[in-house]
Amino acid sequence: MINSPLSTVRTPAPPQPAASRQTGTAHARRVISVVEALADLPGPDHGPSEIAAATSLDPAVVYRILQSGMPSLVVRGPSRRYRFGPGAIRVGMQAMSSIPDPEELSPVLEQLSRRLDACVMLWTLAPYGRPRRVPYAAAPGRYGLDALGLSAADLIHLTSTLRVDASGRVIAAHLPPTSVASILEEEIPVGTGLGVLSEDDYLTSLEVVRQAGYGVGRGEIPGWTSIAAPVLWGTAVVGSLSVYRPSSLMPADLAAPITLTAAAADRLGLLVAGGAGVAPLRYPGRTRVIAEGAA
Question: CA 270 → CA 132, 214, 264, 285, distances in Å?
């Protein structure tokens, strides 16, 4: 028999004892709990005690995980507090790269635009800096952004902030409280209409969105009414789908437009998730609010 790498027979490793496998599984769950706590806790960085309180783990266990288990995913700053590092950015970018191209999503927007005779926009949450939205795909129908009557500079500011318009609020409703606070620190852009919500009304509207799964903007962009629904991948917000129509042409009863917009946003969520994955978020008040006329 020729002694070569191809003819070498390797003895399989002995199977791990059941107790060892269970210990490994338990450790993996603890690591995942720490990562999820870092994502869910308010603020940019956290100490081991905060994370331990959020995960019900021993602080010493949390410290060991942070120190040795995730050298690039989590980093420690000068204040000896921990935050996500470059490894988390790579993970996020890889996840975001799987989102279909605008050309693949546009048929959903175009169908909605035809059915409602409206300008339809798909916004995505900007990946860096203060929470903002960026346009990803559009089906303008017989309208266009130039119909809003704003300068280019005002248009860019107005359509990027989450402080104005239903499309911004349905995204903000699914962000952590610290992100919402930073949105409210922004000045209201030039070019907005009289329908812009006060800070208290804005916060109230976010709770309505969390219950109903859609938002309505009346006159926040002068002369226009907007309807928006979040586009979700499981419970994570990717962006929002919004419908714009001159207020004089928008029907008084918004139940049908809201139903169609919400259904199209759910369809986009399925496409973003590749038709599988985490179960979509359910909104307990969506059916009831639509049935009551979408006030």
Answer: 23, 17, 10, 21
Give the pLDDT confidence of 90-141 residue by residue, as tens digits. 887 777 777 889 999 999 999 999 999 999 999 999 888 889 999 899 898 8
Look at residue 238 and give its three-state secondary structure.
strand
User: Are 116 and 109 a contacting pair, CB within 8 Å?
Assistant: no
Runs of H (alpha helix) within the chain:
18-40, 48-55, 59-64, 86-97, 102-116, 152-158, 166-172, 177-184, 199-212, 255-272, 286-291
pTM of the full structure: 0.76
Residue whose entry in the numeric block shows the structure tokens 């004089």:
248
Rounded distance between C-alpha atoms, residue 239 and residue 269, angstroms? 9
Is 121 buried (19+), middle (13-18) or exposed (0-12) by CB count in 10 A? Answer: buried
Residue type present at position 117: D
Taking alpha carbons only, the member of 174, 171, 166 closest to residue 257 is: 166
